[in-house]
Structures are given as C-alpha cells and as structure tokens.
Amino acid sequence: MLEIKEYVKAESLEQAFELNQKRTNQIIGGMLWMKMGDHRIQTAIDLSGLDLDTIEEDETQFSIGCMTSLRQLELHEGLNRWSDGAVRESVRHIVGVQFRNLATVGGSLFGRFGFSDVLTCFLAMDAYVELYHNGILALADFVNLPRDNDVLIRLIVKKTPGKCAYLSQRNTKTDFPVLTCAACLDEKGTRVAVGARPQKAMLLTVSAEQTEEIRKNGADAAAKIAEELAEQIPTQDNMRASAAYRTHLANVLIRRALLTVTEEVQ
Amino acid sequence: MVVTITLNGKKVEALVKPDTLLIVFVRDHGCYSVKRGCETSNCGLCTVFVDDKPVLSCSMLVARVNGCKVDTLEGLQKEAEEFGAFIADQGAEQCGFCNPGMIMNAIALFRENPDPSDEEIKEYLAGNLCRCSGYEGQMRGIKAFLEYKKNGGSR
After folding, report:
1. Could A98 and B47 be called an inter-chain contact, meaning their C-beta atoms sit closer than 8 Å?
2. ipTM associated with this complex
3. With contacts defined as CB-CB under 8 Å, which chain B residues touch A5?
4. In terms of residue numbers, what domain contains A32?
5. Which of A10, A164, B84, B140 has the fewest CB atoms inside 10 Å of its own CB, making it the most exposed?
6. Model's pTM, two decimal places?
7. Same structural domain for residues A124 and A174?
8. What is the dihedral of CA A12, A91, A72, B99, to 10 degrees?
9. Is residue A45 over pLDDT 50?
10. Mean pLDDT of B40-53
11. What is A57-70 written as a DSSP string?
12. Which domains are seen in chain B, by residue range?
C-alpha cells in the first residue's frame, strides 16, 4: 500500500532535487509501479508542473521530457518515422492506452526496471539522459549506475542515421515481456539491447565488419552472430519463463532484429 | 490539501489527503460507474477522462489532477447511452461490471479514430479486461455502432 504524508508539485528542478535528497521523499513519475509495492513516502514530489511532458525535435536530436507519457512516444510521428516504428512497437503492448497515458519515460528509465521495454528500446539507440546533478550521461552508462537521488530531466535521442528494430515476446498480450530485444544499425555497426532477462537491459555490439557480413550472407551470418551474442547474455528463471527459454528467445529475437535492420540496405 | 476539479462539468472543491486516489474521489462524489477492479492498473474498470484523455483512476493521485477536467460515464450520458445500446443489443454485457470502463475507453477510441480497423479496436481496448464474454459480443457491438455512425446515425 502506498502512503503519502505530503504532496508537493515542484515549482523548479532545484526544489525537486533538494526535496529528493531526503531518503523518505520520492519523485512519483507515473506512480504505476510504485503503487504496486508497500511504500511510506514523507513527501511525494510531482514534476508534472515543470513542462517536462513534451517531445522536442530538431535536426540533430529528439529531446524527450521525463514526464512524457508512453502514449506520447507511441503517437509521435517524427520519433516513429526516424526509428522505423521501433519506439511505437516497444510501448504498444504495455497494458492499455489508459495505462500508457499515465506511465512516464522518466519513471521507466530512472527505475532501470528489468521489464522495461522503454529502456531496452532506447538503450540500443544513440541516447543520453540529462540529470539535474550529474549532467548528461550516455544511457548505456546510466543503466549500470546504482540508483541515487538525482533527478532525471530528459532523454536525448540523437538522430544518428541508421535503421532500428524492436521485438518482444510475451506469454499473453499486455503482460510483462519474457524477453525484449532492440537493434539499431549505424555506420559503426549494430547496437543490440536485450532486456527482461529478467534483469535490466544490457547492451551488446556487432561490429561494422560483422554487420557487413550479415548484409552479404543474410540469414546464415545473422544466425551465427545471434548465437554468439545470446551466449554472452546472462538469463534467469522467474514465473514467466526459464533461463534456458530466455536464452533460446534471445538467439531468435536477435537474429530477427539483425535481419530487419540490415535487410533494407542490402 | 484542497483541490478544485471540474467533475462532469461541475466545479468541485474538496479537502483530500495527499495519497487519495482519483477513483476514491470520484466515487465519493457519486460517480459509481467507476469500478474498483484489479487495483493493479491492469483491468481498465476504473477508466475516466482527465482533460479528455482516458486514464486509470485507481493509479492517479487526485492531487495531480487539481485544476483539471475529469469526466466519468455519468458525464457522458448521451454519448454513452447511444453506444451502450449497441453493446446491449449484442448481449455483450453479461455481468456488466467491466462495461463502464469499456464504454469510456471505446468512446476515447471513437473520438481519436472515428473509423478504426478491427486490429486498431483490439489494440486500443487491450487494457479493458472482461471475465465473461470473450470480447466477441463487444466487438460486434462496436462494429455495429461504427456502421450506424457511418450511415449518418440510422440503422
């Protein structure tokens, strides 16, 4: 059960950061996962009054405020055109429209949840988080940091030219994923993120040479590289699937994602 | 804390606790169409509109909607009655417990996309669970309603 003694709609990021330094205070994001546990919060800090619920696009990047909802990600034409629909695909299976109107990008990323489709999707991209205290960090670095009392302000996604793909496996529609996989190809090679292992998403890279090999040799090369990558991914059992099943899925989803991102430039 | 909310077109001012959920607030103000279901943000029974967007009232603090417009099924009477008749025609209701949430979200769909495909209907309503029906009756009702609307409101 969630108990909140005080509620503050922050008037500035400085105020939110200062309040968040007290261990018993907490930023509430979309509050969906938080509500599922037993929490006693002295002061709930709400960032919804700080105009951080927009997606701004310019020639080089997307700047996504931490209070942007998953539904906004799903519907944003520019982001989905640029990501070949990967962003929409990553969120459209998450519960329902009503849920996605509440769940926030900041909440999903800051929690670094194992089940996060959003984290998996953006981890494969050239993405950064802007934190109030620690400044701008690559999402790939942020994902491995311990949770602290900083404030995630926005997600920055660079428009690095390339191709993106997102795949997930669920036991039933709208459930948590059994495994998630995103791949983004650019001139340096292909970044592959795998999440819901069930631990948080991890990033692997496929070199430009290997990517070229997939372009030339298609399915056989993709299968070989996917198998090699899947062997590097630690998986575990939980109520949704066994570690062995997840490892098998990792192999399949990585292969399909690699073929998807390379096929249009073959 | 004191919140001011425009609930179904009427301005309501109330003293609430910081952890009061929106579902508690709307039910305390007589909106009994808003049902408690799973309370784990999964079933869609508690769907209301906040500033015209469908949300789960079981998962939102009333403090956050201070100053906003909140609509429940009670506030959408005409729109809901018209569509609800098509659901009833198909016998899709059965126990009827999920119906208010489903009607709210279906109305949100029709407002956003007046001519949805079957796949778009299924995807939009994926967050509305029904334990009785298997969803076929609702689907028939929705399609019959859309056909009726396409024909300019005549059967």
Report:
1. yes
2. 0.96
3. 18
4. 2-43
5. B140
6. 0.96
7. no
8. -110
9. yes
10. 96
11. E-SSEEEEETT-BH
12. 2-72 (3.10.20.30), 75-150 (1.10.150.120)
Q: In this complex, do B105 and A35 lie within 8 Å of one another by their Cβ atoms? A: no
CA A12 from chain centre, in angstroms, equals 26
Of B41, B61, B125, nearest to A99 by CB-CB distance is B41
The total domain count for chain A is 3
| Distance of alpha carbon B107 from alpha carbon B16, whole angstroms | 29
Determine the average pLDDT of the residues in A203-220.
Answer: 94
E-assigned strands of B10-102?
10-15, 47-50, 53-56, 69-71
CATH number at residue A140: 3.30.465.10
**Residues of A in Cβ contact (< 8 Å) with B3:** none
Longest dimension (CA), chain B: 50
Residue type for A77, please?
Answer: E
Query: Is the CB of A31 less than 8 angstroms away from the CB of B61?
Result: yes
pLDDT tens-digit map of A76-95:
999 999 999 999 999 999 99
pLDDT at B152: 83
**pLDDT score recorded for residue A11:** 97
Nearest to A92 among B40, B47, B123 (CB): B123
Q: Indicate the residue of B18, B41, B109 with minimum beta-carbon distance to A4.
A: B18
Residues 6+ apart with CB under 8 A from B71: B7, B8, B9, B48, B49, B52
Q: Where residue B100 falls among pLDDT bands split at 50, 70, 90?
A: very high
